[in-house]
Amino acid sequence: MEEHKTLVKDVFGESSDSDDEEEQQLQSKDSSNVDPSESIFGESPNWERIEEINGLWLCRDFLSHDQQSLLLSEIEEEGWLVEASHNQAMRFGNLPVWAIKLSNSIREVVLLSGFVLDSMDNSNCNEDKEVCLFPSDLLWREPLFNQLIVNIYQPGEGICAHVDLMRFEDGIAIVSLESSCVMHFSRVEGGALDIGKEYEMGLPLTKIPVYMTPGSLVLMWGEARYLWKHEINRKPGFQKWEGKDIDQKRRTSITLRKLCPTG
């Protein structure tokens, strides 16, 4: 963990112990220069491994309430989704500054998790998926992500079960804002690899629910990215957690991916 803190200091500089200096720093910053990751650094993020699905991890405390508000303001300032009929925006290649900062925050929060591979060899990841948040060859690629989608869902609106297109590399991040929701994962039928006894025995394929609160980060790689579909059904009666209906509000989703090389 000490080397992780050193890395953070190298990127963002030393923190000050002086209240006066800290106040001056806060006053000198405007909202466009605030890094959404700042209040996470120095703390241990709470990661939850979805045990049924290799390569699926959830961090519910990725962004604080204030960080979410700042991020939503920066998205609104882009002007992409001003009209009510526009509920999706895609960008490829050069991402906005806030999206680059968000990508950097994802990399740093993985580093601060307490487990980072010392080399580009992912053999340890394959042997012990319980501690591997993200393979090192994905974590250290440049850029980490170069494609984003911002989606706005009104109460009752969701997304059908799907696997992200093969035009994107392994390693996908989803940041969920504004409203809690349950994302369901189901195995790809007839996948090339052994994907479970249910399919082999002709039984109905199990759906694995993942509860995402506002500010949550989901990481998908490996089997989670290629052998499992994910969906959000927000129709009445489908959004429940621990036997209770979720109070649905508008939800904003940010998906970050890396395009496969062309040619």
Description:
- The protein is 25% helix and 24% strand.
- With 263 residues, the chain is α+β, with helices and mostly antiparallel strands.
- The termini are far apart.
- A 7-stranded antiparallel β-sheet has the order 1-2-9-6-13-4-3. It has a 4-stranded antiparallel β-sheet with strand order 5-10-7-8.
- It has helices at 2-12, 19-28, 65-77, 97-111, 123-127, 136-139, 197-200, 223-226; strands at residues 47-49, 56-59, 88-92, 147-153, 159-162, 172-177, 181-187, 207-212, 216-220, 228-232, 240-241, 244-245, 251-257.
- Residues 1-42, 117-124 and 192-199 have low confidence and may be disordered.
- The chain is globular and about 40 Å long.
- Residues 1-12 have a biased composition (Basic and acidic residues).
- Residues 1-42 are annotated as: Disordered.
- This is Fe2OG dioxygenase domain-containing protein.
- Residues 144-260 form the Fe2OG dioxygenase domain.
- It comes from Ilex paraguariensis.
Overview in brief:
This protein is of the alpha+beta class. The protein is built from eight helices and 13 strands. It has a seven-stranded antiparallel β-sheet. Strands 5-10-7-8 form a four-stranded antiparallel β-sheet. It has a two-stranded antiparallel sheet with strand order 11-12.
